[in-house]
Amino acid sequence: MLKLDDVTKEFRIGAFGGKSVAAVRNVSFEVVPGEVVSLIGESGSGKSTIGRMILGLNPVTRGSITFDGLPVRAGKEYYRHIQGIFQDPFSSFNPVFKADRVFAMIKDTYYPDVAEAEWARRVAVALRDVRLNPDQVLGKYPHQLSGGQLQRLLIARALLLDIRLLVADEITSMLDASTRIDVLNLLAELKARGLAVLYITHDLSLGNYLAERTVVLRGGRVVEMGPTERVFGDPLHPYTRELLSAVPRLHEPWDDAAPVDTCPYHERGGSGGLVEAEPGHHVACAELQRCLRP
Ligand SMILES: Nc1ncnc2c1ncn2[C@@H]1O[C@H](COP(=O)(O)OP(=O)(O)OP(=O)(O)O)[C@@H](O)[C@H]1O
């Protein structure tokens, strides 16, 4: 379904765009129908940039992203199947539109021929699916709704489309603990219905809760990926181990140049520097960043 193949994203920076920074480097992974893949890594590791490229909000510099074999093509038909939800639900709503208007815009764009009564029925079903009471949310402005209600509204909006992949970027980080679990359980239900989710988070425990597969990013590169229980249960890369051990040093930058005595994957990396250590479980050479330095 979704395939990233050797994807690199460079941003032009500097006064005249004369320099560039590589936010994502040689990233390859797939998301298959009905699968939850979590993308984890520290701040600045390139998670959101990957999400934005998948959503067609940032162009790819090199490599390719395809959905059902076709390149990303931002537009009405693409967004019928792929939707993104972001950290701050308030930013996704126009503050002067009531919730009804959000759904009316979906109808106008995608289902202009559906009768009003039928549309109202579909909206009510979608809202109940995300455990919202239509009477309590329709007719309200965004500021009259909680963060959790707004995230659910966005998921309901996605459900009204023929959605197959949801890119969920830190969607629970602004929610309180109990609302966060509610939203995660909701995503688990959607997964049970066959929806695929790319779950972007820096919170390892949340990724672990939902995802069949985990991709660990550092400095724009995949350092490890595989079945979640293997990546969490038997992390192979020192960076993954450091993330999982949650030692207080976590806020300190990982030392690229620190020698790693015995990296068994050294000099064995293929595309993106990854080695398949066991079926489906890939890891980068722990010295890769150092090796690739000019
Ligand atoms: N539009 C941009 N122009 C220049 N650099 C950018 C741009 N967007 C992102 N970057 C840089 O790309 C890198 C990756 O950013 P990104 O937002 O993808 O990281 P992230 O892992 O999602 O971080 P966070 O968890 O803090 O959201 C960072 O160094 C960031 O500064």
TrEMBL record:
<dbReference type="Pfam" id="PF08352">
    <property type="entry name" value="oligo_HPY"/>
</dbReference>
<dbReference type="InterPro" id="IPR003593">
    <property type="entry name" value="AAA+_ATPase"/>
</dbReference>
<feature type="domain" description="ABC transporter">
    <location>
        <begin position="2"/>
        <end position="244"/>
    </location>
</feature>
<dbReference type="InterPro" id="IPR003439">
    <property type="entry name" value="ABC_transporter-like_ATP-bd"/>
</dbReference>
<keyword id="KW-0067">ATP-binding</keyword>
<protein>
    <submittedName>
        <fullName>ABC transporter ATP-binding protein</fullName>
    </submittedName>
</protein>
<dbReference type="Pfam" id="PF00005">
    <property type="entry name" value="ABC_tran"/>
</dbReference>
<keyword id="KW-0813">Transport</keyword>
<keyword id="KW-0547">Nucleotide-binding</keyword>
<dbReference type="InterPro" id="IPR017871">
    <property type="entry name" value="ABC_transporter-like_CS"/>
</dbReference>
<dbReference type="InterPro" id="IPR013563">
    <property type="entry name" value="Oligopep_ABC_C"/>
</dbReference>
<dbReference type="GO" id="GO:0005524">
    <property type="term" value="F:ATP binding"/>
</dbReference>
<dbReference type="InterPro" id="IPR027417">
    <property type="entry name" value="P-loop_NTPase"/>
</dbReference>
